[in-house]
Amino acid sequence: MAVSSLFSVLFLLLIISLFSTALTSIHGLNDHSSIQQVVSFDGHDDLLMSAYNQFSAFKEKYNKTYLTQEEDDYRFAGRAVARPSPPSGPPLPTAIHGVTEFSNLAPSEFRTQYLRFDGQIQLPKHLKTAPILPTNNNWRDDGAVTGVKHQGQCNACWAFVSIATLETAYFLATNQLVDMSEQQLLDCSDECTDDKRICNLGCNGGNHVLAYRYMLKVGGIQATKDYPYTGINGSCKFNNNKIVASIYEFNDIVANEDQYAANLVEYGTVAVTFNSDMLQTYTGGIACPPCSGALNHEVTLVGYGCDRHRICKNSFGTNFEKNGYYRLCKGRLTCGENPVATFPFSA
């Protein structure tokens, strides 16, 4: 058998296993073993065509294009097809994992292109006592949250949570919901900590606390319509005559999820961090990822459900899970290395 034909058949059995796993929506990743390498055998050209058709459907659904035929072949060949990774501990009760928009990326590529939260910045902790919380709370129900956006292949989650929390804070102050500019932060916020250990670097990562400091320094943020998103680093085009919203203070919350909920109910949406290593293959349900590892992604906490699961606005577009939102079981936002939760006040 020719080398290329042998490689194609090897990939065939791998891709069929992956797609059948996704299409049957396995709950909880009940098989805790990784996908195994398969031994090839002759006579499967019909199955190979089926696998190629599924790959073509994947590209069409997620608008995937590649610059060269070699890149297309590489993605089809499965070397960079994401595989659901087994969690540590017991199976996840309701999370569903399978083929997603990011399934053509190796895990290392996914982390490089989409996940980067640069460190914790120490702030005074704000304590809001709320011994009795509502059964559930969701700021979307109050019209206080703009639509889900897509950061593209730009490590800009830090900018998206900074803007999302400001949008809600501004709504609570003025009763006006305005779509504000993440691109301004990418192009203009180059704030650093005093020791220069953590800096905002546009699409190369950043920190929402530094973004809040930038807003305080320059006076505010423009609307998206005046400073639209491009998803690449550009020169700063900030016009202070077009500022639509500003902040006058921001607070960090002590790492306790009851405190997160209390501040959420009282003050609005909250920028939070968590370990998102399993995010690449997540397609639905309430996720309970391993409570360990580095924090590498930021999302906006907008509410919680009656069973106290956390409802988080992501920045991967509306194709991601439930209209762009990620649902986490209670306790996963306050574990890992130095969890961070912050919110601004606007005027």
Describe this structure in words.
- The protein contains 8 helices and 13 strands.
- The N and C termini lie far apart (70 Å).
- Helix 1 crosses helix 2, helix 5 packs across helix 6 and helix 5 crosses helix 7.
- 42% of the residues are buried.
- It folds into 2 domains: 104 residues, no CATH class; 232 residues, Cysteine proteinases (Cathepsin B, Chain A, Alpha-Beta Complex).
- By secondary structure, it is an alpha+beta fold.
- Strands 2, 3, 6, 7, 9, 10, 11, 12 and 13 form a 9-stranded mixed sheet that branches. Strands 1-8 form a two-stranded antiparallel ribbon.
- Helices cover 29% and strands 14% of the residues.
- The N terminus is likely disordered.
- Belongs to the peptidase C1 family.
- Pfam families: Peptidase_C1 (PF00112).
- Keywords: Disulfide bond, Hydrolase, Protease, Signal, Thiol protease.
Task: Please outline what is shown here.
Residues 133-345 form the Peptidase C1A papain C-terminal domain. This protein has 347 residues and is an alpha+beta fold. Helix content is 29%, strand content 14%.
